[in-house]
Amino acid sequence: MDLELVVVGAELLLGFTPDRNGAHLGRRLAELGVTVIRRTTVPDRVEAIQDAVREALARTRAVLVSGGLGPTDDDVTRPAVAALLGRPLRFDQRVWDDIVARVPQPATIPRSQAEIPEGAEVLPNRWGIAPGLWIEAADGLVILLPGVPSELDELLEHTVAPRLRARAGPVVIRSRVVRTTSLPESVVAERTRPLASELAPLTLAFLPGPLGVDLRLTAWRLPEFEADAALQHGVERLRAALGEHVYGEDEDDLAAVLLSVLRARGLHLALAESCTGGLLGARVTAIPGSSEVFLGGVVCYADRSKTALVGVSSDLLAARGAVSREVALAMARGAADRFGAEVALGVTGVAGPTGGTAEKPVGLVCFGWLVPGRAETDAVVFPGARHEVRERAAQYGLFRLLRLVAV
Ligand code: ATP
Ligand code: MG
User: Fold this and answer.
1) Which of 346, 342, 253 is closest to 295 using CA atoms?
2) Tens of pLDDT, residues 62-109
3) Ligand lying closest to the C-alpha of residue 150
4) What predicted TM-score, i.e. pTM, was given to this entire model?
5) The sheet that has 140-145: what strands, in order across it?
6) For a pocket test of ligand 1, which of 17, 19, 108 has the largest count of ligand atoms closer than 8 A to its C-beta?
7) Which of 60, 83, 165, 382 could cross-link 392 (Cys pair, CB 3.0–4.6 Å)?
């Protein structure tokens, strides 16, 4: 079943409150097999709400409206929708009694709060004041839910979800995400293009970010078993096409994947960070149980700290410059010695926006990786603002280290 969302609230349009209800409803309705085909945000104004609901019904014959059901003057959703549907508001004694029984100071609640459009079904709200409403109108289904996120969630789960699931039938909309890194989006697209017909009826979305490109496969309105089987097959095909650039699925974090490989091999990690300033240490220690594998790291930002803390010689710094493969590797060696680790990573670069030269431009980051029996270095120019260069550098450092220890 298709449905449109109308999200009411001037604060959402002003950008002070991010639309959390739209996001939550989108995810939750998909699980119920309901396709949200459009989401419209409107201010708390009668005509704006009416226009949005009228258009949604004309297109889709089912609309869910969030917000503006409360007792204050800026809450106009109920009268707006009642007028649009030509259903006069009627005072409902049972709704009123219910409110009076639950609120501490009923005198502060206007009686209009219990006025219900003719023929609407009341969805009792045990978590707040304003009840939800379910209206089977001539032009389609109209569901009104309060805007307070916790109330919307409870009403959705307890009352609306079972009804919608019954309407949508025994189908689900389900996604799985394959996470890749260190491949440009264009290359990911090129490698996966030949799979398009084989992946059908799943859709494939590319979600690029500073840490890599996530690929989201979605099964739309399939029986649950069919959806899961198609997704599993799709994930395997994507993994085969993208090889070592796939580091995980769904919420997997590259740092966690790396730590589990190090743990399985009985290896310990040390870090020496310059331009990432502790970002790598933070990524690693964000993973529960990292203490079994991670011995420690140093942030050695100034040249003299690279010498004092991880023993990079001042001759090397003078000869190659702080941003060089040689210094990055010397940092890794120094960290490995200091912490007694078998595996180490040194990172030094020009995060910008200033400090670049023709030879060493902004975004240049040098890496040194040390694993048992092997050392590697690399120099990469990352695009983006300072924080993106740092994030991309941390991710690349982890990615190459995973490749080195996973073989
Ligand atoms: P109430 O009975 O509390 O007045 P209501 O149905 O009238 O409920 P609103 O007045 O629209 O809901 O919003 C109440 C609170 O919930 C506000 O703080 C508002 O910012 C928040 N809220 C409403 N809609 C959303 C949304 N889409 N995303 C996040 N917060 C929201
Ligand atoms: Mg309100």
Assistant:
1) 342
2) 999 999 999 888 899 999 999 999 999 999 999 999 999 988 888 888
3) 1
4) 0.84
5) 35-42, 2-8, 62-66, 140-145, 132-137, 121-123
6) 17
7) 382
